[in-house]
Write a structure and sequence with these properties.
Two copies of one chain form a homodimer. Chain A has 247 residues and is α+β, with helices and mostly antiparallel strands. Chain A is 37% helix and 22% strand. Chain A folds into two domains: 5-146, Sandwich (Jelly Rolls), CATH 2.60.120.10; 159-238, Winged helix-like DNA-binding domain superfamily/Winged helix DNA-binding domain (Arc Repressor Mutant, subunit A), CATH 1.10.10. The first copy, chain A, is built from seven helices and twelve strands. Chain B binds a DNA duplex (30 and 30 nucleotides) through residues 160-161, 191-193, 201-208, 210-211, 223.
Chain lengths: 247, 247
DNA sequence: TATAACGCTTGATATTTATCATGAATGTTT
DNA sequence: AAACATTCATGATAAATATCAAGCGTTATA
């Protein structure tokens, strides 16, 4: 729950002029629907680096869309371990983890200063009743999240560490490409520690796998700067989902 | 897509008299809503053991609720590997994997002869418009699926093999308890091979972990018959989500 | 500028888990 | 009942990865 003094809320520029409309809520809403919709997304939330957007147990008050910055979601165990569930960037939606019983089950923290558009749940239910397009968009977004989880489970359950990293880099590359950025040169938005946790390996192992990819001249890495030198080589290291096959 | 000659469809007994109404769609619908709803779930689908309900790439035609039997969902990779995504039992809903772009992204196969209630997507959209309770139930169900995925990611990403198995047994125990069965004695609905794959380990390792749990006198296993001898001991081996903590 | 703290890398070693190989128990077909 | 295929368990070994330890840049702080 956002209660921090550092937060600020202010009125938002319209969705129809947002440069993220192709990947965010507006995608799939008609012009009429969109004007109804954007009147309900009347606030933005700003949070600073390391500040939490919500924590496990907080009541679900809103669904958020990231406008700028990045958010890490994670789970904590009673042993003090944690598992990063995802790194979320502009255009991504947050809050579905609270749908089951109106409380968040995961934690969300800003990886850098971040701006989010807030859709309060009180408006949400009403909007779903009157906007068929929003129901459709919600199903697509939720389905997308489920598919990403499936993919992550496959990665963690079946792949070795090198392949996990290759797969991650390819996904990130795609992610940037869809948003109009270079798919071969980009910055990792997270430190090694978080990425290793997300990929289910020790930070030292991640380091070694980066070194291995560099030695193969598939990518070059300098701190957080990634440069994909051989896309086909990288694809060859990853064996993501089969388009045709049976079990 | 269900096209097999072995399938049969027939009219379904009403949801209001179904013994699964507490865990399935009806949970959350008012009496009025339920009568509208059950007119749209007008068919059951029967599939035999090892028969597929849908495959990756199939158009999303329906959402299914399992009435009897059990279904395994899984992903396949281009290397011929597969990853089991879940074992689904009576009261569970199937088909959310197709929400993102109206095509299934995973595969679903019957682990035994199975009966499902079918809700065609053509009815679904309309029902969502007129039944607020259904929208709420859908959100809860989808949220539940997302939370289960989070939990699975934590299991695969952070836990060692013994803890993965302990956690799985506890979840299964809960599952049966909610449905009115014994939480200490039950049968595993899946072979070792599938369970090992689901838990991201080799079948031999799973076997050894069962043996380890038996030696600790925490559970006894005979083929597929599980008997939890020491629930607290089992809980002690699993460190699922923390109710209080920070990262 | 010095110093500390952090993020990252690399080497040596220990641990965990996979793989390979075998055999027992159970279930199925003839 | 015999022959066969499945399923599962267990031992021996190999491979992958975690852990421990040290060191090196970079960034932050005094």
């Amino acid at each position: 729950m956002v209660m921090n003094i550092k937060n600020s809320r202010e009125s938002v520029n319209s969705c129809s002029h947002c440069n993220l409309k192709k990947v965010c809520f507006p995608h799939g809403l008609s012009a009429d629907e969109l004007s109804t919709f954007e009147n309900s997304v009347d606030k933005t939330v700003k949070i600073q680096k390391k500040e939490k957007l919500f924590s496990r147990g907080d009541p679900l008050t809103s669904v958020y869309a990231i406008k700028a910055g990045s958010i890490k979601t994670y789970l904590s165990t009673s042993k003090g371990q944690s598992q990063v569930l995802g790194f979320h960037m502009p255009g991504d939606l947050l809050g579905f983890d609270g749908f089951a019983d109106d409380r968040h089950t995961s934690n969300a923290v800003a990886m850098e200063d971040t701006i989010l558009c807030e859709l309060p749940m009180s408006n949400f239910e009403n909007l779903c009743e009157i906007l068929p397009g929003l129901r459709k968009v919600m199903m697509q977004q939720v389905g997308g999240e489920i598919n990403r989880h499936h993919s992550l489970v496959l990665t963690l359950g079946q792949m070795q560490t090198e392949e996990r990293l290759a797969t991650f880099l390819l996904r990130l590359s795609c992610y940037y490409q869809v948003r109009g950025f270079s798919c071969t040169q980009f910055n990792l938005p997270m430190p090694r520690h978080d990425l290793a946790n997300f990929l289910g390996m020790a930070p030292e192992t991640l380091s070694r796998m980066f070194a291995k990819l560099e030695k193969q001249k598939v990518v070059s890495i300098k701190r957080r700067e990634v440069n994909i030198l051989d896309m086909d080589g990288l694809l060859g290291l990853s064996h993501e989902i089969c388009t045709h096959a049976e079990v």
